[in-house]
Amino acid sequence: MPESSKRVAVTGMGIVSPLGNDIQTFWNALCAGKDGLGQITSCDLSGFPIQQGGQVSGISLPPELLAKIRVDDRCQLMVVSAVKQAINQAGLPVNVAQASCLCKNPEETRIAGKMPALHSKTAVVFSTNFAAAGTLDGDLGLATPWTKGDLGFETATDLVADIWNLSGPRTTLSLSCSSGAAAIGYGADLIRSGRADYVIAGGYDAISRFAWAGLSLLRTMTEDKLRPFDKNRAGTLFSEGAGIVVLESFESAKLRNSQMLAELCGFGFNNNAYHMTAPPQDGKGIADTMEMALKEAGILPEMVDHVNTHGTGTQLNDLTETAAIKQVLGKHAYDVPITSIKSMIGHLMGAAGSVEAIASVLTILNGRIPPTINMTEPDPECDLPIPTAGPLDKQVKVVISNSSGIGGNNVSLVFRKV
Amino acid sequence: MVKLKILIMKRVVITAAGPVTAIGIGQECFTEGVVEGGSGIMEITAFEHGKYDAHVAARAEDFDVKEFLPTPKNYLDRNTELSFGAFSLALKASGIDLAKADKSKIALIWGTAFGGADTMNLFYADVQKKGPRFGKPILFPHTYSNTAISMLSIEYKLNGPHMNFVSGWTASGQALAYAYDLVASGRVPVAFVGGAEAFNETIFRYCCSQKILSASSNENACMPFDSAADGTVMGEGAGMIVLEELDSALARGAHILAEFAGAGLAGSPGGLKPKAIEEAMTTAINSSKINPCDVELVLASANGMPDMDKAEAAAIQKVFGDNKPVTTIKPLIGETFGAAGILQLHAALSILEKQFVPGVNIASKISESEKLKIPAEGCPQKIKTVLINNLDPDGNTVSLLIKK
User: Fold this and answer.
1) Is there a catalytic annotation at residue A310?
2) Quick one: pLDDT band at residue B154, thresholds 50, 70, 90?
């Protein structure tokens, strides 16, 4: 680790997704190979050629939190719910609207005095592609005076800092579909550099007419099922949700007696410098971020047990990502099972990378790799081992999670068993 | 007090600058603009402003993207155009030959608050008027907030670390702090870092709805620290600097403009409060291992928004005490949101180069700023160290420390 010897742990996770609004439901559904995609009704998509995707429903929040959010911005509901889960799991010593120390049990309060300064150093790092675009229908593209639409990217980030009374820096990132992973990687950098003691990090996006108007044009959406790495894969399907983690240093987690779910030990990020919407065929960009992340982690390619792929189900992505994995892992690639949870939950846009990071951590914790569903005819060009019939039980110590996005951004995260 | 824990700290220097603003394009012209002190704020001519509550802005009127594009483009959002301008200027000034450089080791770090909002509007107008299937495919990729940085990567084949901040008005300030951390910790030897914000009717309509703009219609509408101020004025611009590790800059014989000596980040829940500004400033000062009294000038974020200016003045007073020299360039270039941090850094470079503090003409100071030394007229002053504030009304704070 060139920057610091400080190691970063994931100590809390929260999720809102088409396959459940809590970690256990989400994980059970992934391992059961459940298809979370279907007709979208959460947003009026009338007139669009494809109206299939993954929507979230049934988010419940206590009244004191509901009172703080803007109801016409569905992102806020998703984000606040996921953050609440992550904070609870981490036992993060923060409380809604007051700065009291909530340690996990009374014995721990005696060490509270030794803990790092709490609220002053809790950072919030979120990422999104479309932010509050769902609020823009009455304003965007119209000549009338602006009404209620929210053009800001940082609203949800500020909201969370306000609700939990956090005085650390708040950062909002937007790197198209690699956003969610970038937020977690950048969050880890804030811990390593000492700019924050705790980081609440992740991505979110909601389905909106604006997003759909554009995504429908990219020729990446399929009318078929989402079939990553299948010979007949015809494209991806978009979804909504939020994936949030709590990051802190090993020292801090040990001091608080908080469970370290996994170590985030590598972060690679770059741009293909090639084309706005297509990856280079050799997969060089994503191969570079995988190498960068492994190098930072000090992990050799042959130590990698699993790759949670970007695996969008488009012809180009799955082919180039396969090539990249082979390039980085060499012959060992054929011993490394890969999967694409997008086959079940779809492509969560700005949340995809963070939700897949959460799945990667759960894979390590449970020793179980979720299947890739909808595979009927394996693509001989995508010939890496993929569990398709059901989950694969395997001890997993090191996972690489890949993300790529429009504009040519790539992010790879490396998680290690603690 | 926050102690940064970066173990391997390399010294970081600024070796090139390329601003695009209402008062000058390129560091040399911009510096002339800062010293002359003529405001870039004028009546809006880009669209009919009569129906809005604000009427002036500081647009980069003289900017023509054609001068800065290596290859022709079918369509670019103004935000991307400005970004190409800043990048091209900084690259040229740096003397770096990209053909010979290891581009995977060059970071590109960017910030913008609104990105391609105007193209979002243009794209969605067809959808609103004609129907869901009628958005123009060519426009959609230009609606993303990361379009500018992606197009720079593609154009210049920059395949190194790549990050796009959209943290509101502190976007480019946070980008600068991150680029500094990357270079200081030895993860990259070189970083191109900056940000852009376009002026257009889409963002203007939105800002009018947010009630942040002054209703005044003259070129002195932006009145930082003034009790008569009723809001800020929209500006436009882009900026980019090259950050390099000192030894590698010296080894290639680069012209060193200044040292980037420290950065601080903080935030305050429930809107901008002095404490978060104090914390950002203190962190930047402590991490650069100097004493507060060695900071010879504070280049404030102040922009004529009463609550922000009061919080900032109170924080500066608290950290530095009486008679600290303070100024701001917002009366010249307006509030440029996501580009504000980087454009203030360009101004700090101008100030260090010319040993000159631009003035702020205040009719009646807000009480919080009474004991600060804010020159009414521009004046020569010996300055080695400038602290820059970059603030967001929702509570995000960034401070950067620059040394001669």
Assistant:
1) yes
2) very high
Q: What is the pLDDT of residue A96?
A: 67
Q: Are B122 and A141 in contact (CB < 8 Å)?
A: yes
Q: Do A234 and A166 share a structural domain?
A: yes
Residues of A in contact with B186 (CB under 8 A): 2-3
Q: How confident is the model over B273-302, as a mean pLDDT?
A: 96
Q: Sign of dihedral through CA atoms A207, A211, A215, A217?
A: positive
Task: Tell me the chain B residues in contact with residue A216 when contact means C-beta distances shorter than 8 Å.
Answer: 132-133, 135
Structure token digits, residue B59: 């647009």
Dihedral angle over CA of A176, A180, A184, A187, nearest 10:
60
The answer to whether residue B230 scores a pLDDT higher than 90 is yes
Place B213 in a pLDDT band, splitting at 50, 70 and 90.
very high
Distance CA B29, CA B26 (A): 6
The model's pLDDT over B33-63, given as tens digits with 9 standing for 90+, comes to 999 999 999 999 999 999 999 999 999 999 9
B162 vs A contacts (CB less than 8 Å) = 175, 269-271, 409
A294–chain B nearest CA distance, Å: 14
Q: Which of A177, A265, A306, A382 is catalytic?
A: A177
Verify that A161 and A15 share a domain, yes or no: yes
Matching residue, tokens 């390399």: B10
Interface touch A167/B275, C-beta < 8 Å = yes
Best probe of the A interface among B118, B121, B159, B287, by most A CBs < 10 A, is B159
More confident residue, A359 or A116: A359
pLDDT above 60 for A100: no
| Angle in degrees, CA B152, B156, B157, rounded to 5 | 105
pLDDT for the residue numbered A1: 31
Residue range A266-289, pLDDT digits in tens: 999 999 999 998 899 899 999 999
The pLDDT score that the predictor gives to residue B24 is: 98
Q: Which residues of A touch B202 (CB under 8 A)?
A: 140, 151
Q: Which of A263, A280, A309 is the last residue of a domain?
A: A263
pLDDT tens column, B231-244: 999 999 999 999 99
Q: Pick from A208, A234, A263: which residue ends a domain?
A: A263
A347 part of the active site: yes
At B308, list the tokens. Answer: 């922000």
Contacts of A149 in chain B (CB under 8 A): 206
Percentage of chain A with pLDDT > 70?
93
* Burial grade of B90 (CB within 10 A; 0-12, 13-18, 19 or more): buried
Cβ-nearest to A193 among B5, B115, B270: B5
SS3 call for A383: coil
CB contact under 8 A, B124 and A140: yes
Contact B283, A193 (CB under 8 A): no
Q: Based on the domain organization, do A231 and A282 belong to the same domain?
A: no
Domain count, chain A: 2
Q: Compare CB distances from A167 to B108, B164, B276 and report the shortest one's residue.
A: B276
Same domain, yes or no: A402 and A253 = no
Tell me: pLDDT of A251 over 50. yes
Closest CA to B300 of B276, B267, B325: B325
Q: Which residue of chain B comes nearest to A116, CA vs CA?
A: B2
Catalytic-labelled residue, pool A31, A306, A310, A382: A310
Distance CA B105, CA B109 (A): 13
Nearest beta carbon to residue B166 from set A174, A193, A276:
A174
Structure tokens at B382: 């010996």
